[in-house]
Amino acid sequence: MTVFTTTLTATINQTTETSARAPFIQQLSSGDLPLATFRYYLIQDNHYLTAFNRLHQEIATYLPANEGAILSHLGEGEDAARQRMHREIGLGMQELQETPIAPNAYSYITHMYYQLDRYGAAAATAGLLPCYWLYSELAQRLAVKHSPVHLYQEFFDSYTAADFTTSTEQMKAIVNQQAASVDELGRQQMTRAFQISCYYEEQFWQMAFDQQEWQ
Ligand SMILES: Cc1ncc(CO)c(N)n1
C-alpha cells in the first residue's frame, strides 16, 4: 500500500509555493517586514500554538500508548524558541494573553477541534500535520537566503533545526499509523482535514500581513 503521507505531497508542495510567494514571507526573508507586523504574528501564533499544544494532549489520549507519548511530547516542541523570540522583542505574558485572537487564527483552531470532535483522532492528527510539514519545507527553502534581520533569520532557523525536522518525521509516522488503522472513508476524512489546514496555513500569512481584526 502507498504510504499515506505521500498522497498529500502535491497539496503540501502547493501550499509551500503559495506561502513562499506570500508578502509576509517575502518580506520576512528580505528583512523589509515591519517589526509591528511580526509582533502581531507572534501574538496570534501564540494563541494558535497554545491551542495546538492542548490539542496534542487531547488527541494523545486516543492513540496507542507509543504514539500517544510521542504526540504529547511533540506538542511542546516550539515553546523554547518562541519564548526566546518573545523576550527579544519585549513581548510579555500579559500582552500575549490580553490581545484578542484574530478571525483567521480562530477559524484555524476551531477547524482542528471540529475534526477531533466530528471525525476523531485520525482526522485530527492529519489536521495537525501541515503545521509541521509546511514550516519545515518553507524554512529549508528560505533559511539559505539569510534574512538581514537577526530575529527573522532566527525564526527560519528554528524550523530548519534538526529537532523540528525530526518532529515533522515523527508526526508523519503517526499520521501514517492512523491512516493504516482506519477504512477508506476515514482516510478521505484525513485528507480533507489536511487540505483544510493547508488552506488556513496559507491564510495565516495574509492575516498577519494585514493585521486582521474583527470588523
Ligand atoms: C499557524 C502555524 N502553523 C504552523 C506552525 C509551525 O508549528 C506555527 N507555529 N504556526
TrEMBL record:
Please tell me whether the keyword Cell membrane is annotated for this protein. no
User: Does the record bear Hydrolase in its keywords?
Assistant: no
Q: Which residues form the signal peptide?
A: none
The enzyme's main class, written as a single word, is hydrolase
Q: Name one GO biological process term.
A: thiamine diphosphate biosynthetic process
Give the EC number: 3.5.99.2
Q: In which pathway does this enzyme or protein participate?
A: Cofactor biosynthesis; thiamine diphosphate biosynthesis
Domain Thiaminase-2/PQQC: from-to ranges: 23-210
Extract the GO molecular function terms from the UniProt entry. thiaminase activity
Known Gene3D superfamilies for this protein?
A: Heme oxygenase-like (1.20.910.10)
Q: Which UniProt keywords apply?
A: Thiamine biosynthesis
Could you name the Gene Ontology cellular component terms for this entry? cytosol
Q: Which reaction does it catalyse?
A: thiamine + H2O = 5-(2-hydroxyethyl)-4-methylthiazole + 4-amino-5-hydroxymethyl-2-methylpyrimidine + H(+); 4-amino-5-aminomethyl-2-methylpyrimidine + H2O = 4-amino-5-hydroxymethyl-2-methylpyrimidine + NH4(+)
Quaternary structure (record): Homotetramer.
PANTHER family associated with the record: BIFUNCTIONAL TH2 PROTEIN (PTHR43198), SI:CH1073-67J19.1-RELATED (PTHR43198:SF2)
Q: Which family does it belong to?
A: Belongs to the TenA family.
Q: This chain belongs to which protein, by name?
A: Aminopyrimidine aminohydrolase
